[in-house]
Structure formats: structure tokens, C-alpha cells
Amino acid sequence: MRHFIKETDFTVGEMAAVFATAADMKRERSQGTEKRAHLEGQSWGLLFFKKSTRTRVSFQVGVHELGGQPVMLNAEELQLSRGETTADTARVLSRYLHGLVIRCYAHSVLEEVSRLGTLPVVNALSDYLHPCQIYTDFFTLAERWSGGDVKRYLESLKGRKIAFLGDTACNMANSFILGGAHLGVEIALAGPANYAPQAEIREELSRSGLVPSWRFTQDPIEAARGADMVYTDVWTSMGMEAERAERLSQMQPYQVNAAVMRAAKVGAYFMHCLPAHVGEEVTQEVLDSPASIIFDQAENRLHVQKAILAHLSTHGLTQT
Ligand code: CP
Ligand code: NVA
């Protein structure tokens, strides 16, 4: 039983295959010629403990387009919210469903459900990681940096410099640290010292035997200097709302604005997983600038997640 709950659950070779499938799916969808039935006759649950726009819709549409039926499960509406355990819920759901996409708070929920081994589990964001987003972000850059040559997608990412500004202890920052090391991409993070990358992600790298490719600074311009792409995420992630005022005041110097973009390489891209909080982590000017590829990035969630599901359905269910 294979799962996709962290960036390293697929080998680099598998990532290349997923990206190639996503590129095919994207092209065929735009031509109206896509006929794929990887999930024919299957029902996949989408269990969400947190809010979502992109992830829930792209997974719903994606499962449908692969021939399966998506079953939207809002945790608030399940017996989970009245005390039924996650393990019992997962065991019951596995009697109906063929796979489960989960967006949750504690990452341990994903680990617990995947350990049961009753159905494949896909991480649709936890407090710790957002692997579907990071695969999509690398795919979106590779489309551009490879000149459209799918065989060169991963190679085109190697040695690039990505700057990540703001909350460098959040799920997106962790996913860049892990995904960057997996692929050999340099990640320069800048944020307040008390929001620096935490021990958990450092230990993850050493457990995985990966050479760290990230560094942390408190200087946003130093991080952005010479970067091929500048990224930011909300300063107050879901579940952190009580800390909002404190975070806003501490992270103000790390806003991505025109000055930050000027420090990056000529032709550097700006990306954001969205939703954006305009005037906080990024200015409207940067969001609207030619450097910004945020909506292509959002679109690609659909193609990449379909490729991830297709990969699990053809390689995941036969391996132990
Ligand atoms: N980027 C992202 O995961 O968006 P949603 O929270 O809207 O799903
Ligand atoms: N770090 C953000 C990502 C949202 C897609 C959050 O967890 O809220």
C-alpha cells in the first residue's frame, strides 16, 4: 500500500514520471482529448478538517476526470466531531472507499491512517507539510525553465535558487526544505528568528538521508538576492489565528514587494500558494506584476494531483 503524505514518498524518478503524466493530462485536457480511467469504479473520500478552495475543488474535479467518484467529507459533519476516533473513522471509511485525501491539523493523523494500511492516503495539507502544493510549484517552474521539454523538467530545477519569505516555520516552508533537498534546489528562507525552521524538519532531512539545501537568514534582501523565484505564504496559517496580531507585527519586514523583487534575478518569478492577504505578506503590485504566475500555479494543482492519484492507482496498490 503506497501513500503520498510527504515529498519523499515518491522517489525522484517517480516525481519525473508524475510530472510527465501531469504534462500529458494538461495538454490532453486543453485539447479536449483526455480519456483516462485510472479511478474507474472507485470512490475517493476527501476528508477536510480545515477550510479549502483550491485543494478541495481540484481534487473533486480530478477524481471525477479520472473516472472515479469524489465523496466530500467535512470533518465537522462527521461523528468525528462528536468524539469518534480517527482510527475507527478510517477503518469504517475503508470499507466504502478506495482512497482517502486528508487535510488536517496534526500530521500524525495522516501517519496514523496510513499505518492502518487499509487504503491509500494523500496529504492535502497538514500543519507540517503541503506536498501536493510543492509538487505543483516545482512542476509550474519546470514547465518554464525547461523550455517545455518534459524530459528536462527535473534537471531544469537543479541548482536553482528559491527565496521563501515570511513564516519560515510553516507547512509550505517545510515542504520547500524537504522538496528542495529531494531535488537539489537551493532554498533561502528569511523571517523573524522565532519563526525559523524547527527541529522536526531538520530531523526529517537527516532521517531521510538528504543533504540539506536550505539556509535561514533574518535579512529578506539577502535571501532574495539572485533568486530565480520568490515565494511567500500567509503569515497566519490555519489554526494559528490566536497569534495573528503578533505574527503581523513581527513579519512586516518580510513582505514581498517591489524592492524584494528587484533584488531577485532579472526575469525571476513570484509565486504564492494562495489565498493571499494583500498588503500583508505581498503587495497588490507584485501579485499583478508580469513576474507573478500564481494562477497558472493554482491551475496546475489539478493536473499534478490527477497525476499523483494516477500514479498511486497504477503503482501504489500492488506494492507492499
Ligand atoms: N493553496 C491551497 O492549498 O489552497 P486552499 O487552501 O484553497 O486549498
Ligand atoms: N500555510 C497555509 C497554507 C494554505 C494553503 C496554511 O496552512 O494555512
Could you explain how this protein is built, in words?
There is one protein chain. The chain is of the alpha/beta class and 320 residues long. The protein has two domains: 137 residues, Aspartate/ornithine carbamoyltransferase (Rossmann fold), CATH 3.40.50; 165 residues, Aspartate/ornithine carbamoyltransferase (Rossmann fold, 3-Layer(aba) Sandwich). The chain is 43% helix and 13% strand. It is built from 13 helices and nine strands. The strands form two sheets. Strands 7-6-5-8-9 form a five-stranded parallel sheet. A four-stranded parallel sheet has the order 2-1-3-4, sandwiched between helices. Helix 7 links the parallel strand 5 and strand 6. Helix 1 packs across helix 13, helix 3 packs across helix 4 and helix 5 crosses helix 7. The longest helix has 23 residues. The N and C termini lie close together (5 Å). Phosphoric acid mono(formamide)ester binds next to helix 2.
Write the layout of secondary structure elements.
Blueprint (H helix, E strand, L loop, with lengths): L11 H20 L11 E6 L5 H12 L3 E6 L11 H8 L5 E5 L4 H9 L4 E3 L7 H15 L7 H5 L3 E5 L5 H13 L2 E5 L8 H9 L6 E4 L2 H5 L4 E4 L11 H8 L6 H6 L5 E4 L11 H4 L6 H23 L4
Helix pairs in contact: 1-13, 2-13, 3-4, 5-7, 5-13
The structure holds phosphoric acid mono(formamide)ester and norvaline.
